[in-house]
Write a structure and sequence with these properties.
Shape: globular
Radius of gyration: 26 Å
Oligomer: single chain
Number of helices: 6
Strand content: 35-45%
């Protein structure tokens, strides 16, 4: 069971005597879900009411709960800033983590507050529109190198796995998606970071409150806040992002993917892995989840792409130690291949369906997954299954992957040119390739040249 975050919801109204009366409720969610569901500006529906989250527990003015963090721009590592800590990433060696742009004020969400009038919060049965805010989010995977054991890779493929006894999954809510923010590199990707503007005295969040276009600045604070009487120019605000950390066990896999069709191949392999796990487990392994991660390629350009299978139970259950074994991984992938190859959607002209990949991936990955890509990757790995021990998959060389992807890019460019321009005397047709790979024959039959490639 994950650590819980609480929403304290208050509804107020006037009774027949004209006096105000309040009713309070408490709701709980696990921390990873709460940094979105209980985030400022979001609405939580319960008991026939819409509770709009508009304030957070922030500690006291003298002892705030905020933490000052350094987040690596190149990998998933991060740490709380302290005078004695060397401002260098201990995972990838990045030194720009010391720059001011990579210094973040983070709040571990413990308690969120919603305060609304009972009449205004009432939800009627005929209303189907339930408002949900979208947020800029990031999920960072941080593996403790000293906890790695049982690492292996395939001799002829940039694929392998390792068990990590200590992995930290950091979930960040960087602010409302509809608000413009700063472009900041976090974990190898450029993120839009707007944060939440929070009153230093009462924890009220400006973005979630209506100050009537600046005409009622006191409405940006809770009723008891001393800043209400100071005026808007004297209020003190902090810009904060939300943080949740899960420390657990994980199996980290590296894929032969670097810079070409990255999202499609990662999502397709993730779906295949989840199908294989379901078949291996004999049902849905509810305590196991998958995250996607990447880090700099130590041997050249591009980035290492990882699929991380982690235990959702804090601290882990020990179950994953069995799943890092190369024979077990092969069995899981082989089971996945059987299900995907035999899915009825093979003959329906669709790239995937809910009976295979769409049944296990997230909704935002529906347009990315492909049965063809998943089978291509599985066939390539299973056909070259010759594992060998290594110290860590973090040292696996991606040179062959980058060379292969360059060849793929060239093939795609040629095919696009022929299909788009349809030059006279130039034709292209598919032919059998080596090791099951896609190949084609390019023929030039013009007055200037006659040749076949």
């Amino acid at each position: 069971v994950d650590d819980a975050t609480t929403l304290e919801a208050t509804l107020w109204n006037r009774n027949d005597d004209g006096d105000y009366q309040t009713t309070k409720w408490s709701y709980a969610r696990n921390g990873r879900l709460a940094i979105t569901e209980f985030a400022p500006g979001n609405s939580f529906y319960a008991g026939g009411h819409r509770h709009l989250v508009d304030a957070l527990e922030i500690g006291t003015e003298d002892a705030p709960l905020y933490e000052t963090w350094r987040l690596c721009p190149d990998c998933g590592h991060g740490f709380i800033e302290a005078p004695e800590i060397d401002l260098r990433c201990s995972r990838c060696g990045n030194t720009t983590i010391a720059d001011v742009g990579h210094r973040h004020t983070l709040l571990r969400l413990r308690t969120a507050y919603a305060s609304n009038s009972e009449e205004g919060a009432r939800v009627y049965d005929e209303r189907d529109d339930r408002r949900r805010e979208e947020y800029q989010r990031a999920v960072l995977v941080d593996v403790e190198p000293s906890s790695i054991e049982g690492a292996w890779q395939l001799k002829e493929r940039a694929f392998g796995a390792e068990f990590a006894g200590r992995m930290t999954l950091r979930s960040l809510n960087l602010g409302l998606a509809r608000r413009p923010g700063q472009s900041i590199a976090i974990g190898g990707q450029t993120r839009q970071v707007s944060g939440f503007t929070i009153c230093r005295q009462c924890g009220a969040v400006a973005e979630a409150r209506d100050d009537r276009d600046g005409q009622a600045p006191e409405r940006l604070h809770q009723g008891w806040c001393k800043a209400r009487s100071r005026g808007k120019d004297n209020a003190e605000w902090d810009t904060v992002s939300l943080l949740h950390e899960l420390q657990t066990e994980a199996v980290r896999m590296i894929l032969p993917v670097s810079m070409f069709l990255v999202e499609q191949r990662l999502a397709s392999f993730k779906g295949a892995l989840l199908i294989g796990l379901r078949e291996d487990f004999g049902g849905e392994p509810d305590h196991l989840e998958v995250a996607l991660a990447d880090m700099p390629n130590a041997g050249g350009q591009g980035r290492q792409r990882h699929v991380v299978l982690f235990d959702a139970i804090p601290g882990g259950t020990g179950y994953l130690t069995k799943l890092a074994d190369p024979d077990r991984v092969r069995s899981i992938l082989d089971r996945a291949r059987t299900v995907i190859a035999r899915c009825p959607c093979v003959g329906e002209g669709r790239p995937a369906c809910h009976r295979c990949l769409l049944g296990v991936v997230d909704r935002n990955e529906y347009d990315l997954v492909s049965r063809g890509i998943a089978l291509e990757m599985l066939d390539d790995l299973l056909g070259a299954w010759e594992p060998e021990e290594v110290t860590t998959i973090g040292h696996i060389d991606l040179a062959k992957v980058e060379e292969s992807e360059l060849e793929r890019r060239f093939k795609v460019a040629i095919q696009d040119w022929v299909n788009r321009a349809t030059p006279d005397g130039v034709t292209i047709r598919p032919v059998p390739g080596k090791s099951g790979r896609d190949a084609f024959e390019l023929r030039f039959d013009t007055e200037f040249a006659k040749s076949t490639w």
